[in-house]
Design a protein that fits this description.
The protein has 13 helices and no strands. It folds into three domains: 1-68, no CATH class; 70-237; 251-315, Winged helix-like DNA-binding domain superfamily/Winged helix DNA-binding domain (Arc Repressor Mutant, subunit A), CATH 1.10.10. By secondary structure, the protein is an all-alpha fold. It is elongated, with a radius of gyration of 33 Å. Helix 2 (23-30) packs across helix 5 (77-106) and helix 6 runs antiparallel to helix 8.
């Protein structure tokens, strides 16, 4: 039964667990160990290297569906990644094999319907494994790259979001078949009922896991992408400015004289006469200037000359 309380950083961790014992599983996936005494949520999280805000956001969302987060940008992506990766580890390597073993023990292997049920479960387990392995091989490494400042042009979290669909259809089908059609005189009826109860819990857990990804993880990665893409644009602009600045230093004095003359509206012949050089030399200087600065238009050269203090803007005919 859900508790409607919104848990805060100063609440005692033991109280949170006493109110919601199913949170015990989440503690391990965050990397929180038991034995924390009467410490608060904040104290336990800080002691064990878990971001308190992210922990409480996931817990309150899981318990009460609470979504009114202060700021999605406050989520700790490493904490979320640790939680999701550990969830996959728990589900693939413990939960799926455990339920399969329970079904094997509860069903008669010689019964055709029992064999079909096992086949349906194996198909479900295969789909879940395929879905989670995709996240581990594609989504999580992509996010790790973002955290290291690498922005991909070939993938984004929106691609994952569009394909983040329902993956527990076969589990519901399995559950309904057991309830509706399995004979009532099965030898291990109590064991099968207990297994069915675990399947219901399994379905609830998987739904919550999916909702955490949809409502917390994906929005947090969208914000991270936006941040790094903005930074990437700024870096490219800075690099371009720096490149132009470096280019200005590599210009010869004569090339700078040619730029000033061009900005003043002189023709190639007038520049040649003004600087006492040949027209062919002027043309060569202009080619070198365009190559070094990657600027080819008179307007672009005028802006360059003003920004780099080669001419005063008051002396330029706009």
């Amino acid at each position: 039964m859900k508790n409607n309380k919104m848990y805060e950083a100063d609440d005692k961790m033991i109280s949170l667990i006493a109110d919601n014992y199913n949170i015990l599983q989440s503690l391990g996936r965050f990397g929180i160990n038991l034995g924390f005494g009467d410490k608060t949520v904040r104290e336990v999280c800080e002691d064990q290297g878990v971001d308190t805000y992210t922990f409480l956001a996931v817990v309150n969302f899981s318990i009460n569906g609470y979504r009114d987060f202060d700021d999605g940008g406050r989520f700790s992506i490493p904490t979320l990644l640790h939680y999701l990766k550990a969830s996959h580890e728990y589900y693939l390597n413990f939960q799926l094999p455990s339920i399969r073993k329970e079904l094997e023990d509860a069903l008669d292997e010689n019964d055709n319907l029992a064999r079909l049920i096992m086949k349906l479960y194996d198909e479900y387990a295969h789909e879940i494994r395929k879905h989670m392995q995709y996240e581990e091989k594609t989504v999580f490494p992509y996010v790790d790259g973002l955290l290291e400042g690498r922005v991909s042009d070939d993938y984004d979290i929106e691609t994952f979001s569009k394909h983040h669909g329902q993956i527990d259809v076969k589990l519901k089908e399995l559950k309904n078949i057991i309830i509706k059609y399995l004979p009532s005189d099965i030898k291990h009826n109590n064991q099968l009922t207990a297994t069915l109860y675990d399947i219901y819990n399994n379905e609830e857990w998987l739904g919550n896991h999916s909702q955490v990804e949809e409502n917390i993880f994906i929005p947090a990665i969208r914000k991270l992408e936006h941040k790094y893409k903005q930074n990437d644009v700024s870096a490219k602009i800075s690099k371009m400015i720096s490149r132009n600045h470096d280019s200005s230093e590599s210009l010869s004095d004569r090339e700078k004289d040619v730029i000033v003359s061009l900005v003043q509206g002189m023709t190639n012949k007038e520049i040649a006469d003004h600087l006492c050089i040949s027209i062919n030399t002027v043309i060569t200087h202009r080619r070198n200037i365009a190559r070094k600065l990657q600027i080819h238009s008179p307007a672009g050269l005028t802006i360059y000359a003003i920004v780099n203090n080669l001419v005063d803007i008051s002396a330029v005919k706009l």
